[in-house]
Amino acid sequence: MEYVKVTKENLEKEHICCAISNSGDAQVKSKKAWLAERFDDGLVFLKSAERGKCFIEYIPAENAWNPISAEGYMYIDCLWVSGSFKGHGYSNDLLGACIEDSRGKGKKGLCVLSAAKKKPFLADPKYLKYKGFTVCDEAANGIQLWYLPFSDDAEKPKFKECAKNPRVEEQGYVLYYTNQCPFNAKYVPIVARTAEERHIPFKAIRLESKDEARNAPTPVTTYALFHDGEYLTNEQMNDRKFLKLISR
User: Fold this and answer.
1) What is the pLDDT of residues 157-172, one digit of tens each?
2) For residue range 201-215, what is the model confidence (pLDDT) as tens digits?
3) Structural domain spans, the chain
4) Which numeric CATH code is attached to 3-160?
5) What is the pTM of this model?
6) Could you give the C-alpha distances from 165 to 96, 110, 227, in angstroms and in order?
7) So what CATH class is 163-246?
């Protein structure tokens, strides 16, 4: 497999694995705009040269858009290999490249979000355990922070206090999200419109800066849906899924 590192210089001509469409698509545009502003923060986006979902995205933990304390670590935003790319060792290739790069940059190790059981859009805990990661912190909603230290004396990363017990004060449905996930550009407006048409209280809060994201009331900032203050899910909703959720 040939891999390509996406940079400021080639961003416009390269496909983005998690949002493969024409360049004018709202999902592609929002993701590329988000990436363009993160490269100066040390973000790395390494992907398959072939079109498909096969990539890793990581960034120095101090610049991660998540409420974590992990100074000196590298934080993995996303490691995604799916479809025909699965079963060929590409996840190992991508993670190995991240480890090599992080060691070369003098990092203490890696950290990433997961849970005891696989959740949508989060790293697979079975794979993390297989690769030597262990849990270093857990929020009250079951979202876990896993880490792979490069030395035995490396301090463990942890969640910031604001994310330990995910909860919001507002009533109704409240969604926190960022443009890190391209699907939000398409589906957040759809859910908002669906809620409005059915007179369902709904508020979408887009986190627009690193500081906002690092002080959010949720470990997962790409998508975190609450209802009457209680955390519900990190799974992106379309209109059908949203209506099914509220009917429960």
Assistant:
1) 999 999 999 999 999 9
2) 999 999 999 999 999
3) 3-160, 163-246
4) 3.40.630.30
5) 0.94
6) 33, 23, 14
7) alpha beta
